[in-house]
Structures are given as C-alpha cells and as structure tokens.
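Task 17 of the worksheet. Students: predict the tertiary structure of the chain below and write it out as structure tokens. Keep your answer in the requested format; marks are given for formatting as well as content.
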Amino acid sequence: MARTAVVSGGGTGIGLAVAERLAAAGDDVILTGRREDVLADAASRIGDQASYVAADLETLEGAAAVLQHASEHAGRIDVVAAAAGGNTAAKAPADLQGLERVSWAWNANLRLNVMTAVHLVEGLKPILNDGGRILLFSSIAAYRGSGTGSYGASKAALHPYAIDLSSELGSRGITANVIAPGYTEDTEFFGTSMTEERRTMLIGQTDNKRPGTPGDIAALAAWLASPEAGHVTAQIIQSNGGALAGR
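Model answer:
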C-alpha cells in the first residue's frame, strides 16, 4: 500500500530530490512551497503520484492550507519532510542599519527555517499515521556557524525540536530525525553569491573532494523515511563528505 509524504520546499533543490526519490519508491507525494508555478512544474515532472499546494508556511494560514489539501487528497499521511528554508540575512532592506538590520535578519531566518518546519509538522500531526516519519533539514552551519549568526542558529534550533518530537511520538512508532547537509550544489541556496574560489575552498574541505548533490541528501532521507529505519530516531545526521567530522 502506497504511503503519502508531504514535502515542503518540494519545488526545487533538496526538497524536489526527496520528493522524486520517495515517489520512485512508490510513495504518493504532496509538494508545498510558495511558488505555484514552480510546484506545478515539479509535480508534472514527478507524474501522477504528485499533487501540490501553494502555501506560505511562515504563516498559520499556510499550515492550514497544507492540512486541508493533505486531508482531502490522502486522508492520512506517513512522512513529513520539512525541507523549506534558506538564508535571508543578506536580503535585509537597504535602509535598515545596525540593530534594526540584525533584528530583521534574525527574525526572518527564524521564521523561514524554524517556523516553517514547526507549522508544517504541528499542523499535520492530527493526520500523521502511527509508524510515521518526520524529517527536518538543518545545515553544517548549525555546527560551525554561518558568518551571519542567524542562519546557523535557526538551523540548530531544529535539533532539539526533533529530539522532543521523538520523545513525544515515539510510543506510536513515529521517528523524528534531522539531516544536516554540507555544501550542496544544484540548489537555489547560494543564488549568484557562489564564486569559483569559494566553491573550490568548500570542496577542498571534504574528504572525498566533491560537492554534495540533492540526490545524496534524498538517498539519506529516503532511508530514514523507510520502515527499515524504525529504530533510528532523535538523531542529527550529517552529510558533508567529511567536511566536518561527526560528533
């Protein structure tokens, strides 16, 4: 019997790769994100197993829209993959300076990286089946900083959230884990800010001397979402080619 997975940030990058991997394994997938056209293209790429709902998960209204869509299309769900996120610190309005600029960046990144995950997971709890899987997506920046403070801190906040979710839901066979990727190409994360010099430096930090790919993260996510991973929970699992040793 096919399971149903809800994937935020499902239109591009890691979220899309996760959705494609789960669909390839036989799951139905519900994609969500803010851009309807991007979601429509992604769903078309996946095929009949995919549906989508455009929603801003920084808001309660967005969470309610995802719950309504999932309830109407699937009734119950089995996997929640909260892949939406990013670093908005550099996008602060130009007229903000000093403390106002810092405050804007922190609030924006907390909304984008923490509250989108919290709203998605908490909103879907009422229809999450026993034996379900919750996947949160952090970053290597949660361990070693991001240069702006707010991004790494917002990703690190997901770690204790997963631990608490595991404690709360574990008796129902539900697992909650965090994937913390290192440098991953073919995503929208870096926009136009990635230089060849920086790329070379990031790849040079790895032991296997290559960048990560969305497919690397999707493969790990698919295993954590599988029945075989039922005893793996409350873990933060890095995927960075050895750029930062496990701890």
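Marker's comment: The domain at 4-239 is CATH 3.40.50.720 (Rossmann fold). The longest strand covers residues 128-137.
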